[in-house]
Amino acid sequence: MKRVLITLMSICVWGVEAFACTGISLSAEDGSYIQGRTIENSKMSLLSEYVIIPRGESLSSFTPVNADGMKFKAKYGVVGLSVVQKEFIAEGINEKGLSAGLFFFPNYGGYKPFVEIDEYYTIGDLQLVQWMLTQFSSVDEVIEGLETVRVAGLDALAVVHWRIADASGRQVVLEFEDGVPLVYENVVGVITNSPSFDWHLTNLNNYVNLFSGDAPDKMMGEFRVSPIGGNSGFLGLPGDATPPSRFVRAAFYKETAPRLATAEKTVMQCFHILNNFDIPIGTEHEIGKAPDLPSGTQWTSVIDLTNRKVYYKTFRNNTIRCIDLSSINFAKVKYQSHPLDELEKQPIEMIKVK
Fold first, then answer.
1. Between 263-274 and 243-256, two packed helices, what is the crossing angle to 10 degrees?
2. pLDDT tens digits for 267-278?
3. Which of 20-29, 289-298, 328-337 has the lowest mean pLDDT?
4. Which of 10, 45, 52, 328 is most enclosed, with most CB atoms within 10 A?
């Protein structure tokens, strides 16, 4: 356990500033509720896997001193997508339709100092998603359950915050400041990284001038000023990859997206919107020092909370894959994890011209 956790620490210390996750949510006309997100690291591979946790599985948490923390047993089956190792689920859903995901939150959040005497009810921050999804069926249950645990940071630089939602469409953001848990109703259905969620909401007021479509012509004296091209109503939309800019951009893309008829169409719509948040390798590095990675966005996932389906694609294979929770017998399946890509290569379909 000590060796594995030290490996995690080294990744967090070297790569935390390269994380740039973006999350959105959409609803379909048929009532389906969908959530999507990206996960980034532009310095190294996150070694991500898909993880299956059966009902009844005995689990335990790491702590900052490498000892076993809180022990718990899975009440619900879970499908999740992990980073670094299978215990650290970054995004997932359980068989009841509860979904949760972690987003890095450096320089703003903070937990209570870890005390070894409290380890029996301590849960590491990178395992909080695993704990929430195996224990609860609704947002309300999660909020109540948080009163029974102490969340500890596994590394000082790797503070995170969380998006939590259930199949009803309710979504909240959980942040810790000075050890105090703060729960925000996510009324815009968007999340990125630092600063705090309430700051991002206030910042949206700076973009009240933006609207979909084209700006009208106007006269400046005797000179007519006209839009040069389409979408001029979005002039001023920030295009950089900082968390505040991504939050604003995601909020306006989500708000102007048409509501589609079905869950499957909405899932595809989520993927298309999130394509706008792919981070090209090289933008966060000095010239000539970018690593050999195809993208800073390592994978994109979309979860259908209503129909209990997990979709994902990766930076090495943009083919969309799906795990249907209804096809899994969580009473009999084994606890397991597998790489997101069987083969780290993009399939290319060759067209035969007749």
1. 150
2. 999 999 999 999
3. 289-298
4. 52
Enumerate residues 6+ apart whose C-beta is below 8 A from 210: 233, 234, 235, 236, 237, 252
User: Which amino acid would we find at residue 171?
Assistant: Q
Residue type, 63: T
- Kindly report the three-state secondary structure assignment for every residue of 100-153: EEEEECCCCCCCCCCCHHHHHHEEEHHHHHHHHHHHCCCHHHHHHHHHHCEEEC
Alpha carbon 208 to its chain's center: 26
Backbone phi and psi for residue 130, each to the nearest 5 degrees, phi listed first: -55, -45
Average pLDDT along the chain: 91
Asked whether the whole model's pTM tops 0.85, one would answer: yes
Q: What is the three-class DSSP state of 4? A: helix
Say which DSSP state 270 is in: H
Per-residue pLDDT for 29 more than 90? yes
Q: What are phi and psi of 102, to 5 degrees?
A: -105, 145
Whether 336 shows a pLDDT value over 60: the answer reads yes
What is the largest distance, in Å, between two alpha-carbon atoms of the chain? 77
Least Cα distance to 163 among 100, 226, 112, 242 occurs for 100
The domains located in the chain, with CATH, are 2-9+21-192+257-339 (3.60.60.10)
The one-letter amino acid code at 13 reads V
Question: Beta strand 23-27 with 68-73: parallel, antiparallel or unpaired?
Answer: unpaired
Residue 5, both tokens: 């956790």
CA–CA dist 132, 53 (Å, integer): 13
Is residue 109 within 8 Å of 198, Cβ to Cβ?
no
Residue whose entry in the numeric block shows the structure tokens 């050999």: 292
Q: Which long-range contacts (CB under 8 A, 24 or more apart) does 278-281 make?
A: 278/38, 279/20, 279/40, 279/42, 279/241, 281/42
> Which structure tokens are listed for 340?
């997101």
